[in-house]
Amino acid sequence: MQKIIGLIGGMSWESSAEYYRIINELVRERLGGLRSAQCLMWSFDFAEIEALQSTGHWDDATQEMIKAAQRLERGGADFVVICTNTMHRMADDVQAAINIPLLHIADPTAERMKKAGLSKVGLLGTAFTMEQDFYKGRLINKHGFDVLVPDDDDRKIVHQIIYDELVQGIVNESSRLAYREIIDRLVARGAQAIILGCTEIMLLVKQSDSSVPVYDTTTIHAEAAVEHSLAG
Predict the structure, then answer these.
(1) Strands (E), 49-202
(2) DSSP string for residues in 156-194
(3) Which one of 2.60.40.1180, 3.40.50.1860, 3.40.980.10, 3.40.50.300 gives the CATH number of domain 106-216?
(4) Residues annotated as part of the active site
(5) 3-state secondary structure at position 43
(6) Which InterPro entries match (predicted)?
């Protein structure tokens, strides 16, 4: 029997659609035939969330995330998945407000990297994810990684491409080349792997764009959700 996956999405819907696709493909692969995932999704109007992010109203954003998780719990979800890296900034507050587990996006990625014997990794994501401690701090303090982020100018490029292009479904070859150059600079500083720490980056960057392993948090998180759903 499947556990019901509660998805908090819409941040952006472009990557949330990938979660839905990957989760259902994996369930069909695992169970066969016409099988698909049992899941619920609460999808935000991302313009409202982005406005709270850009103006620093994180407390208001936290309350919105808590309400979304509680809606999913009331709807029958057995656990919650936040379909974005950035909004894991309030993951602890969301978990404290519900009575079902929250599957943190950083943990399954970290476990895979540890199994691969990695110790120093590069992190790409929104400016919030690259600059604040809620994500990289978890990788450092809980999982023991040395985490590298791009320099100031490169962080601006990574962030701008996410918000001006990827969350709007725009994929430009010039942006792919810019990301490749940024990845190369992280590798030159010693990064043994690159974490795609924004769920939209997988729309732009593939393994072929990096000389070191790429860890796509969208796919890994979705896979972990399926494993949790089908466990037992």
Answers:
(1) 79-82, 120-124, 146-148, 194-196
(2) HHHHHHHHHTGGGT---HHHHHHHHHHHHHHHHTT-SSE
(3) 3.40.50.1860
(4) 84, 198
(5) strand
(6) Asp/Glu/hydantoin_racemase (IPR015942), Asp/Glu_race (IPR001920), Asp_race (IPR004380)
**Cβ count near 130 (within 10 Å):** 21
Whether 12 and 167 have beta carbons less than 8 Å apart is answered as yes
Check residue 156 and give its pLDDT: 97
Q: Would you say the CATH fold of 106-216 matches that of 5-104+220-230? A: yes
Domain ranges in the chain are 5-104+220-230, 106-216
- Cβ neighbours around 206 below 10 Å, total: 12
Q: Are strands 39-43 and 5-9 parallel, antiparallel or unpaired?
A: parallel
Please tell me the predicted confidence (pLDDT) of residue 199: 87
**17: CB partners within 8 A, 6+ apart:** none
Question: What pLDDT is stored for residue 150 in this prediction?
Answer: 97
**Short-list 156, 111, 162, 106, CA closest to 134:** 106
The whole-model pTM stands at 0.92
Q: What is the pLDDT of residues 174-231, one digit of tens each?
A: 999 999 999 999 999 999 999 999 989 989 999 999 999 999 999 999 999 999 999 9
Q: What is the C-alpha to C-alpha distance for residues 162 and 131, in angstroms, rounded to an integer? A: 15
Sequence-distant (≥ 6) Cβ neighbours of residue 1 within 8 angstroms: none
Tell me, what amino acid is at 179? Y
Mean pLDDT of 162-182: 95
